[in-house]
Amino acid sequence: MDESFVQNVVEAITLFGFGGGILLLFCIIAESFLRWREGRRPFSREMGHNYLFFPLGPLMEGVVANALLIAALTAASQLTPLHIPVNWWTLPLYFLTGEFAFYIFHRAGHELRIFWADHSIHHSAETYDFTVNLRHTPFSTLYRLLTWTPLALLGFHPLILVLMAINIPAFQTFCHTQRIGRLAPWFEWLFVTPSNHAVHHACNPLYLDKNYGGLLMIWDHVFGTYQRLEESEPPVFGITRQPRSTNPLVILTHEFRYLARDVRAAPGFLAKLKVLLGKPGKTFQATHVPDPLVIDRSAAKAAGQ
Question: How much is the average pLDDT of 60-71?
Answer without folding.
Answer: 79
